[in-house]
Amino acid sequence: MKLSIIILNYKTAGLVRQCLRGIFSNPPSEPYEVIVVDNASGDLCLERVAQDFPQTQRIKLEVNCGYAAGNNAGLKMAQGEYVLILNPDITVLEGKLDQLIRFMDKNSKVGLAGPRLVNPDGSLQYSAYRWPSWWLPLFRRTPLGSWGWGRRFLEHYQMYDWDHRTNQPVDWLLGACLIVRRSALNKVGLLDERYFLYVEDTDWCRRFWQAGFQVYYIAEVEFVHFHERLSAQASFGGLFSRVTWIHIASWLKYFKKWGIKVPHR
Question: Structure pTM?
Answer without folding.
Answer: 0.93
